[in-house]
Design brief:
Layout (H helix, E strand, L loop, with lengths): L2 H16 L7 E4 L1 E2 L2 H6 L5 E9 L7 E4 H6 L3 H6 L5 H14 L25 E11 L5 H22 L3 E5 L2 H4 L11 E2 L5 E4 L4 E5 L15 H14 L9
Parallel strand pairs: 1-4, 3-5, 3-6, 6-9
Antiparallel strand pairs: 2-5, 7-8, 8-9
Helix pairs in contact: 1-6, 5-8
Amino acid sequence: MDFTNFEIEQNKIEKLIAKLETDEKSPICDGPVDPLIYCQANGLKILWLLKEAYDNDGDGAGGWSLAKLLGDPLVYEKFLKSSKSKNTWYPVIYSSFGILNNFIKYDDMEFIDKDQSMVSILRKIAFININKLAGKSTSNDIDLERIFSQNKEILKMQIELYNPDIVIGGNSLKYYMGILNLNGVSPVTSNYGTKYYLEKNRVYINSYHPGRIGIKRDHYVNEEYIDDIIEIVENALPFLKRNIT
């Protein structure tokens, strides 16, 4: 799809998301961090399925774009440097960086705090939150199931438009199994015990949330989490429709 048509379809989705506004909350925009770069990428396209964003600075009111913030050249200074969101976004950055740089592993990467240029990899990915309004720092499964049901058609439209090769679920793939037609697909198990699915030239990774509470973290990441995702994609490469360039 050319970028003009991509923008038209993205605008349609954004208008639907805007209608989710309530008296207390406005949507926090998700999607491709840099739509032009994502749409025109020749290499593998990565989509992260997350749960919800939270809005401490805005008292939970929302009404801003997380996608645009992540694509800001100054995102490290504005958002990542002193933010608790490091626990979520550093694993996303390292995993995506490894996949899109010849599957290098965590030990062969520089620390983000020393090489802040690594955060620019975010401009090559897309992410979707189930809850388009501001949530809390921890998510409630019952609430998310209800919200997923309400937003299901929008989420499906986003996945179809973004047409990823790699879908990484942050403890969220369980909600999508039906609309992704994965319920009858037998999973493969990685060396670290993560289940993933190979279906129609796409890999779906059922990983835990990158910001999961209660795991050991050095430099805001769990090394096994990063290398597991990178290794899964590397092993799945023969099944994917695009090759890294």
